[in-house]
Design goal:
Blueprint (H helix, E strand, L loop, with lengths): L16 E10 L2 E9 L11 H16 L8 E6 L5 E7 L4 H17 L20 H16 L12
Antiparallel strand pairs: 1-2, 2-4, 3-4
Helix pairs in contact: 1-2, 1-3, 2-3
Bound molecules: zinc ion.
Zinc ion binds next to helix 1.
Length: 159
């Protein structure tokens, strides 16, 4: 079988950032998949599942309620390696275009207080597996170390 596109990225050189992972055509529409890379693969510890799960609930809730983007959101969810998230939006977009949206989403996570949306037995398959405090800390780190003042080398995949 052929190696799929996301396995051809050089994960050894990859640093945390906001990258375009791929673009797919579905009929006349382009779907852009963003790689929201939060930790350096194989270099830093990965995120634990409870905080990843919490960020998934918060991020999906944020995106699907966003006044400008809610109708463009296809998907938001974690990478299996737990080093980041994929965000899929309708439209032919570049990483620079979504930095304000991604920044707003992680500020929402960082500042979130109260009950995590969808964290109940009725709404989720593993609702006890949540860690809001760690989710908030990881969101803060991604904002402070990556998103605020992001430069070109964190917006385009390394060769
Ligand atoms: Zn869940």
């Amino acid at each position: 079988m052929e190696k799929i596109a996301s396995f051809t990225i050089n994960h050894i050189k990859l640093q945390p950032g906001v990258y375009v992972s791929r673009k797919d055509k579905v009929g006349a529409e382009t779907i852009t998949t963003f790689d929201l890379r939060m930790t350096s693969p194989n270099e830093e510890p990965v995120m634990n599942t409870a905080e990843v799960h919490t960020m998934e609930h918060l991020g999906a809730t944020f995106l699907r309620n966003h006044k400008d983007y809610k109708d463009k959101v296809i998907y938001f969810g974690p990478m299996g390696c737990r080093t980041g998230f994929y965000m899929l939006l309708a439209g032919d977009l570049e990483s620079r275009d979504v930095v304000p949206l991604v920044t707003e989403m992680y500020e929402f996570m960082r500042d979130f207080e109260g009950d995590v949306p969808g964290a109940s037995a009725m709404d989720c398959g593993n609702y006890l597996d949540m860690n809001l405090n760690m989710a908030k800390l990881l969101a803060k780190n991604y904002l402070d170390k990556v998103l605020y003042g992001i430069k070109e080398d964190r917006l385009v995949y390394p060769q």
